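Q: I'm teaching a short session on how sequence maps to structure, and I want students to see two examples side by side rather than one. Could you give me a first protein with its sequence written out and its structure tokens following it? Keep the formatting plain so it prints cleanly on a handout.
A: Of course. Example one:
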Amino acid sequence: MAVEVCCVCGKPVTGAAKMLGGRAFCDEHYAQVGHNRKGMWTAILALIVGLAAFVAAVFFLAPDNVLTGPALVAVGLLLALVPAVIWLVVFYLQDRAEPEPKQYLSGVFILGLLLAAAVGQPLIQNVFQVNEWASGSLGLRLLAGITIVGAIQEFLKYAAVRYSIYNSPEFDERIDGIIYGAAAGLGYATYLNVDYVLSNGGVDLGVGAVRVAVVALAQASFAGVTGYFLGRAKFENRGPFWLPAGLLLAAVLNGVVTTLLSEITRTGLRPTPLNGLILAAAVAAATFAILFAIMRRNSRPTPAAAGGAVQ
């Protein structure tokens, strides 16, 4: 009769081992790995509400664009950084009760940004030149959005977590995958927004604020899906197709939502950016709500056997 050992600490489990996804845990680490932070849902909701308030303040209260030149670019860059600042502030306030090493969170955020700048966007824009050939029919844009843009962006966000914090002892809860995935997504979004501002020599304040919020919410929610799959893969026997399936799902979500955003933010020749904000906020809220609900449902202990050991 073999005695189960905890897959986290490696110590023999006394009594009935608690099982999760085919792996055994001691009481301490099962309680930890299955911990569902209620505060994280609050933090995500606060991010969405905070971005909406930021957009409303800029879109409806800012005067007509009177800035030009370097001043316009500087203000645009500040707008591009707002989602990351809101996320970090909200996370810091929530984190006082349920601490997560801030240097790791910041590191994953920066890594997501750097991968976007050094690999992701150069591949999409310069190598595959998506904007030059995938601007025709809806079907072509959708195909390019999933197979090229979505696949590259989501793999790099996955890599930012998988090859950094994932192997650290600090990644000790399944929900950590969603937390760090969202951080990587916000890092990627920050680069996209900064690049957008610089490429256009600045942006209209109202429209720019909406775009910044839309990109941040969308990229964070896509990466949250991959993070969910990563979180379960580390602590459960999910099989060889689990992570590829997560990446595929995130890439499809990326391509479909991004294409829809480009469609609904323009009615005829008139830009309607607020439509995109509504869709992005709805997608982010629904995505994270579903992920947290599934995680909570799958956190119930399953005693292995009455005698404590598993055959």
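Q: Perfect. Now a second example for contrast.
A: Example two:
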Amino acid sequence: MSEKPWAGRFSLPTDKFVEEFNASIGFDKRLYKFDIKGSMAHARMLARQSIITEDEARIIISGLEKVLEEIESGRFTFSEDDEDIHMAVEKRLTEIVGPVGGKLHTARSRNDQVALDVRMYVIEEAETAKAYILNLQTVLVEKAINNLGVIMPGFTHLQTGQPILYSHYLMAYFQMFKRDFLRINDMVMRMNYSPLGAAAMAGTTFPIDRTFTASELGFYGPTENSVDSVSDRDFTIEFLSALSICMMHLSRFSEELILFSNPDFGFINLSDDYCTGSSIMPQKKNPDIPELIRGKTGRVYGNLMAMLTIMKGLPLAYNKDMQEDKEPLFDSVDTVLASLKIFAPMITKITVNEDKMREAAGRGYSTATDLADYLVRKGLPFRQAHHAVGKTVAYAIEMDKKLEELSLEEMRRFSSIIDEDVFKYISLDASVNSRNSYGGTSAESVMTQIKLAQGFLNENL
């Protein structure tokens, strides 16, 4: 067992079980490239400030490059004796370059190191998430354009409400994912400040240049308070929150894919290569991918709650509890990125059963509101029109007729102001195309949405 860098204070070696329980190297090793990049910037700053020599900085940076190459080639040996990725890198660096490697830790602490590494990790993964979201949005726009004339039932309470364009439905999800993109982008802007140089929690006595290291690492600047710098995990919680909301949107979409691909709906067909079969029922085609995404949403929510719970009672500044931030973060990132990555091609390969969608849109008296609007345009107050149409629908149900199958005489039983022109307003196409208000479901309105969406994509791709 190697001696710990902090062992000078202690009279007994660390208990083996304590060492295993305390170690985070098993999961935080994935931060290696951020740890090494931050260390290189720190070494350059130390030399620039004459805290170490230029030669010492070159030796340290050359050694760090060798450590990086060893890790990425798979030749690096990770050990629980090293406790965490920071100690593992520093130990191997010192083995490569000798005692000068020990100078790297001047004017910093593992507290600001880990805060830096996790911030850099979150920023990189946030950019990946944004790219995956944009890819999914691009697919949604393409599908909306290619299905512009397809009419489907719009639901409230999962009951038929009004007919809408399938493209309008798809663009609703575009808007959800647009908010996800902007939410993540906003979070990155808020967290893009470097904690490096905050040291353990009070800053350092050395004449460091935190602005230099922040710039070297691509941050807007240094964080403003050293205590907050090492104890802040708001950025992790914000990212987990944004990922949870994004996963909620994927889960809602998945639920509808599951419903709409059920033969009782029959609106869409999921491609065979995104489904599985049953071990006993040969006819089955199971929507396992949407189901898995719906299920994985729970674990992402759980990770957010875990992180909030970890932080809820911590006194300032750093506490070992905060080591527990990484596994929930890593798991949520892996889960959401995998879900986004598979979702876009799955949507691309969906085929639409236009006739079934249209048939379903015509059921449930979905144009009843159009009849009420017709009466209002004839001068009847809306509440009276609503009541008259309700009576008309009840009669149609009793007669087992669709609304447009009622004769003019039958309709006039419930309002004498109905004329022959009523049938122009209560067809599916008329209903959809008449909803031309901004954001509405008419083809013209949906094309406006699509053009705005294309503009958003062009700005961000």
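Q: What should students look for in example two?
A: Point them to this: The chain has a mean pLDDT of 93. Also worth mentioning: The radius of gyration is 30 Å.
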